[in-house]
Amino acid sequence: MSFVEYGDTIKDGDTAIVFLGHESMFPVKVQHGSKTQTKYGVIRHSTDLIGKRYGSKVTCSKGGWVFILHPTPELWTMNLPHRTQILYSTDISLITMMLELKPGSIVCESGTGSGSLSHAIIRTVAPTGHLYTVEFHQQRAEKAKEEFQEHQVEHLVTVKNQDVCKNGFGVSNVADAVFLDIPSPWEAIGHAQSALKIEGGRICSFSPCIEQVQRTCLAMEEHGFTEINTLEILLRVYNVRTISLQIPDLGKAAEDNSSTGFDSSNQSNQGSLYGILQQGTAQFKSGVPLKEMVGHTGYLTFATKSLF
Amino acid sequence: MEESAKPGLRICEGDCAVLKRDEVFKAVLVLRRRKVIFEKQWFYLDNAIGHIYGTTFEVSSGGSLQPKKKMEETTTETKEAGTDNRNIIDDGKSQKLTHDDIKALKDKGIKGQEIVQQLIENSTTFRGKTEFAQDKYIKKKKKKYEAVITIVKPSTRILSTMYYAREPGKINHLRYDTLAQMLTLGNIRAGNKMIVMETCAGLVLGAIMERMGGYGSVIQMYPGGGPVRAATSCFGFPESFFNTLYEFPLSKVDSLVSGTFSSETLPSEPEYNVPVEEESNGSLDEKQTLIQETEEESSTEAVMESNETEEQETMDLAAEDTEYKESKEKGNKENIREKQRKQQERRRKLVETAALLEEKNADGLIVASRFHPTPLLLSLLEFVAPSRPFVVYCQYKEPLLECYTKLREKGGVINLKLSETWLRNYQVLPDRSHPKLMMSGGGGYLLSGITVTVEKVQSDASSLEAQKIEEPTSKKRKLQELHC
């Protein structure tokens, strides 16, 4: 297993995802002799996990079962230990595409935070690219380094513990793309500019507040960035439900019963828009929006550094 | 395989490039002495060759491109401005220059920048406008009179934006941020073995190939006579990227699943069935596929209720059918031999592709087509290894509702999620930041999930039943809902 390559079977030392049910999962470090408690009972790593195929159903001691999944940056994002607020896959997707990341890209990022975006960037730039990630919080930087090692991607990433606003990224004219998720990104635009390749590249700044965005846009303009564009992306999830709606009784005359479109006794209407299960109700499938959704994560500001 | 900085940096003859003016893009092939029409202007790309990608050019008279120096910001010496618009009256008399005057200026070869300056000087109301309104005025006039274009390197970002703006019907209205979600949710990366089924002109395929960087393999499933890759060719991938690109006809999928597959009949190849009657000049094969493609296209259009106007404009690259020209020039006999050789080569690759699929160990499945997703998913998921992601795009929500239900009934998939994304652009100016007036009404829907092993012995339903018994009732219902 590695976060940049699929493996077929679960091995000692792997980070696997234990899937209990929708939205209910957690990561586990596979170790010989180790045990993991779930609500369905104990999973014994040596017998239940090691050697099994990823995607297998594993029966726990109480008889319930779970699936063991191969880790991906997306599953990691859903399960990682939060040390900070993190970026989720919806924003990450847009960032990756708009920064034009691909295998071989050199990327600078700050801050590292909990490493959610870092894992996604590493996945995309592997096997020939590199991520330089800068985090001003020492413990977070160290923890991130450990995780990259555990996930076998340490050769693709350099973690630095410094303040990007003061000391920059520690590299110059190498990056194809720069990503900023810091409290005052406008202070780091100059450093971002010099980290990018001479011939140019892309930059993205993520900020929750519009005031931050305004200052950042001004700074980008001052540093000669072009194509400055601010946008926001929201994920709308739908629950798939079968819904039955009652047909109101409008007091129709008895003889009209057979001609009404909603009458289940009418055979000719079986193929109609409404699936009729029982008298007086119409059944259909619907994608029901969640009662509450994330309405704001942050504004994404993209820009291009170009020679001209 | 990787694009080292040096060779891809400059615009070369034969490159696939993208012209850009403000938010408008157009993919072109860089050729000498070839007239290009873009945004109501015509010009030749000859002078652009040798310049660095990202250079902005000015179109001068005679259609030649001149690189534009770093923006000599239009002088903002007119710092005189009004406070509000109470004195601005719309009587159509504020501009003293007439249409003919402006046309005369243009004909004299006066630069766009100069024309804008003259417009400002001859506007009676400009000084009375607020500073903000002045900015807006200048920006608007610049856009109209300054003939500048930028030449950029193609990428998924640029091509998906271009297609969505210009020809959404060709890509089933797949918005670029939705495509971005697909690439991430599908865990597309170097080294994967991906199955792709798309009818988005090859845009989704191209996006996947870009993310894989020539490492790993892609199997494109195609309907009809052959895979459509018009948009794929716009990416300008190196030749090596196509060595690991395979294609497989959808019409053979069922036989492959049931184990009755044979390579003997390729879809829509009349010359195979009647090899002797080949007296035409050999362009039959190409023509045939062409007809089929146009048929497909027109039927798509009918569904998409769209009226593409500038179809050829983006499709300039596709028109470049070198194969067609080649085969026309060749002699008849040689032609037939060549054809048979190609035929054999095709069959060899088909067998190879079938073998790749039969390993049933693909690292993911991406579907973005105009077809109903359910049958595609039910069949193609057979070829995907357990614990791998899959993503299906559909322009409409309802087919995905059905697909969701059918997949749950069949089993072997978890973490099913139906979603869409909303994308909102912002105007950011000091003290004047707000969402833009217009936003996209919809970018399509995605159904994503993860494959798992299917146990043949114990049916999923019974084990779910067993688990439910242990759970308290409240939990039970929840579990049933969640275990999807």
UniProtKB/TrEMBL annotation, chain A:
A biological process term (GO) from this entry: tRNA methylation
Gene Ontology molecular functions? mRNA (adenine-N1-)-methyltransferase activity; tRNA (adenine(58)-N1)-methyltransferase activity
Q: Which InterPro entries match?
A: SAM-dependent_MTases_sf, TRM61_C, tRNA_MeTrfase_Gcd14
Question: Cross-referenced Pfam families, in alphabetical order?
Answer: GCD14
Query: Which keywords fit this entry according to its UniProt record?
Result: Acetylation, Methyltransferase, Nucleus, S-adenosyl-L-methionine, Transferase, tRNA processing
S-adenosyl-L-methionine found in the keyword field: yes
Note whether Methyltransferase occurs among the keywords: yes
In which compartments does the protein localize? Nucleus
Root EC class: transferase
Reaction catalyzed: adenosine(58) in tRNA + S-adenosyl-L-methionine = N(1)-methyladenosine(58) in tRNA + S-adenosyl-L-homocysteine + H(+); an adenosine in mRNA + S-adenosyl-L-methionine = an N(1)-methyladenosine in mRNA + S-adenosyl-L-homocysteine + H(+)
Enzyme Commission code: 2.1.1.220
Question: GO cellular-component terms in the record?
Answer: nucleus; tRNA (m1A) methyltransferase complex
Q: Please describe the quaternary structure of this protein.
A: Heterotetramer; composed of two copies of TRMT6 and two copies of TRMT61A.
Return the similarity comment: Belongs to the class I-like SAM-binding methyltransferase superfamily. TRM61 family.
Which PANTHER family does UniProt cross-reference here? TRNA (ADENINE(58)-N(1))-METHYLTRANSFERASE, TRNA (ADENINE(58)-N(1))-METHYLTRANSFERASE CATALYTIC SUBUNIT TRMT61A
> What biological function has been recorded for the protein in this entry?
Catalytic subunit of tRNA (adenine-N(1)-)-methyltransferase, which catalyzes the formation of N(1)-methyladenine at position 58 (m1A58) in initiator methionyl-tRNA. Catalytic subunit of mRNA N(1)-methyltransferase complex, which mediates methylation of adenosine residues at the N(1) position of a small subset of mRNAs: N(1) methylation takes place in tRNA T-loop-like structures of mRNAs and is only present at low stoichiometries.
Q: What is this protein called?
A: tRNA (adenine(58)-N(1))-methyltransferase catalytic subunit TRMT61A
Give the species: Chrysemys picta bellii
Q: Which gene does this sequence derive from?
A: TRMT61A
From TrEMBL, chain B:
Q: Which BP terms from GO are recorded?
A: mRNA processing; tRNA methylation
Q: Name one GO cellular component term.
A: nucleus
The record's principal subcellular location, in a coarse class, is nucleus
| Alphabetically ordered keywords of this record | Nucleus, tRNA processing
Protein location? Nucleus
**What segment(s) does the record annotate as region Disordered?**
62-92, 260-345
Q: Where is the composition biased (Acidic residues)?
A: 307-321
Q: Where is the composition biased (Basic and acidic residues)?
A: 69-92, 322-343
**Subunit details:** Heterotetramer.
Q: Which family does it belong to?
A: Belongs to the TRM6/GCD10 family.
Q: What does this protein do?
A: Substrate-binding subunit of tRNA (adenine-N1-)-methyltransferase, which catalyzes the formation of N1-methyladenine at position 58 (m1A58) in initiator methionyl-tRNA.
Record's protein name: tRNA (adenine(58)-N(1))-methyltransferase non-catalytic subunit TRM6
Q: Which organism is it from?
A: Chrysemys picta bellii (Western painted turtle)
In the UniProt record, the gene name given for this protein reads TRMT6
